[in-house]
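Record format v2
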Amino acid sequence: MPILDMRSATFARDQIIVPPVNITLDAGKQSDIVCETDLSASVLARLAAGVIKCTTGTIFIGNFDPKIQPVQVKRLVGFMPRDQARALPDPDAYFSYRAALWEVDKRQAIARGKRLLRRFDGLPAQEALLLAGALLHRPHLLVLDRPTSLARSAAEDASGEAALFAAYGPADRAVQIATAPLEMAVR
Amino acid sequence: MSTRAMRSAATFAIAASRARALWRLAILLIAGSALAGAAIQLIDPATSRIAANVLFTALVAITLAYANGDAARTDPFAAVEEAAPLFGRQRARANAVFPAAVVVGCAAAQYIWPISHASTFPWEAFVVNAAAALTALPIALSVPLRSRRNGVLYAIFALAAALLCASFGGAVGNSTQSDLAAVLASIGVAIMIGVLALRQYGEALARYDPLPRST
């Protein structure tokens, strides 16, 4: 059973933002996809994480439909948004906050978060924190919104058995090709 | 930890996140309410004074609801809420906790001047004022989720609901000649409208598809 199954999924608001996409990602596998615009990439990542719902087509995440079972979907997914925060939150407070939202034991979450931060030593602090936060509840699918090549590699190392999905914009693609070749998903 | 306790932890975490983002605005609004309350005491007759109190607190509720929505989009803590496994109604309740506490604080602050001069707290007026503001708040919380035009309509609707709550309380109080009846009537209207509006806000949050902020 695929962990992520997108069939002709689109997203539109006034105009089409994500054109029809077909992706099948099995458990433990990885997929990187380059979109035509940064907005398209960020929206595709949110579709894959169940944060927003597709306009047409279908998306199943771990056999759950995000339109009908959003809570079950979000338990399976770890989502790392593009780094946009204005201020760096205190790591302990941030992990406690995420532990409360994901119904994870607070002490265990802080301990795991700290271990992950040590592991992401070379990453910029903000990115390391966001990635550690996304992995805190041991997701089955890790979704990255336009990650840097460093964050992508760190996520691959740390995700373990979890499947990994990353969406890139056109500018990210140039950076990625220069640093690490991408596995292109079929659109 | 039980599931119920874990859910309460999520509510508390979101409310604390809003408090971290909005505490300065909250203090400003409470201080502004104390000053406005003193100015409103100069208005005569008493019915106009109560209407002015209610309108002011409802405007505070709308301002706070808008700031609350903005904090949910820009706060680094709140940025992950959309991806959290929470139902829309849970997020709605959690989002309303801090603004509701501040609005009640603002309603109370408006009577600091009367307390200092008459040494009695006009609790009936306070409860009616707070109930009216708590009627407006859940409606106003939807404002940031709407388009600009619909947002304005929601804000007007919130003001109208606050006035309805206070006038219904006033009408019941006049007809029964009982302050307690006025208070209970206002609370009843606040519960009826507030619960429905909060439920509707939760539905709106569940259906809302937030686009990335950089766009």
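DSSP finds seven helices and no strands in chain B.
The interface with chain A takes residues 1, 3, 6-7, 9-10, 12-14, 17, 74, 76-77, 79-87, 206, 209-215 of chain B (CB under 8 Å).
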